[in-house]
Amino acid sequence: MVVEQNGEHIHIHAECLVISPARLVVKYGDPASSNCSSDTPVEMGWEATQGGVGLTDNKVKILNWKVDSVTDWKIKPTCFTDGGQCQKELNITVYKLPDSVSISYRKYPDPMVEGHQYLLQCLVQNIAPIGRLRVTFYKVSTTGEQTELDTQQKSKDNINTPENGTYTLDFTPGRDDDGAQLLCSAMLDLGPEGPQPPPVMDSNRLNTNVHYKPQITSPGCFSMSITEGDTLSLNCSANGNPAPSYDWLLPQADPNTMEERSVVTITNMAKSHSGEYTCIAINPLGNSTCTVNVEVTVDYLPIFAGLAAAVVVILLVISCFTYSSYYKHRRMGHYQLKDVLPRRHKNKHVVQHNRMDQSFM
What we know:
Distance between the termini: 200 Å
Oligomer: single chain
Protein name: Ig-like domain-containing protein
GO molecular function: integrin binding
GO biological process, one term: cell adhesion
InterPro entries: ICAM_VCAM, Ig-like_dom, Ig-like_dom_sf, Ig-like_fold, Ig_sub, Ig_sub2
Organism: Oncorhynchus tshawytscha
């Protein structure tokens, strides 16, 4: 093609052939089709292991390539013109979904232990092209929450035929992973021309049984006070797998003490029971301890109340006795004065009468 620009003739080489669609993604065994076109009529043909078309007798502007079932993994259809002066290759990807996806341990843990490392492997069987495969490892908690652990993709773009792929991951479980499930997921990402959304196949799920040493959750390590005469009850609880057994270290042995697995109970606490009460939770992987510092105190309020009541009673008795004595003494004094005074008046009267009698004589 020749165009004029600023008075000069410029040669522009247009693309002689155009393929539409330029890229095909075809599932193995499915049909495929594409067109080859030219701006000007030319003799053209398709060279391919499947669906090839010989050079046309007449000049044409468009020529179709079509296959009912693609079965060649390395098929490369190419459109060409007479004499091979111009040719264009169709970009085609033939894919196959995996036969199966499975997850397993490289060496089965018996049992799985907290903090140890284990090798997981995900096997994807008979997939193509393996270079477009993305494998993701997941962990699903007991509550159903899914967490991505790792995503891997192998660089094998030159391999078109079906392959088996093995992907590995080092997994270090914690106590929170006990009861969780592990799986891997294979996604074949073939780009925008491929199926949307990209096809995904999940593996089976591995149930995890994680063993871990006990960790005491209750009653906790603290200090407390208790009144003398009350009952002390401490309940020790721990998380562990296998389930832990319990033991108690007490300040002293006492007939009022009763231990039943994780619970210790002491009735009628005395000052001698003050001290450290240590719970020990034990399983084959280790132990956990927790100490409660107990102080036995005396409640002086009833004593003070009793003493106050006794003082009040004593004061009442003393008051009553004092009042009684005073009242009796006063009463006795009143009677003596009364008895004396009448006698004195009576004698006076007698004397007066005697005087009068003497005057008449």
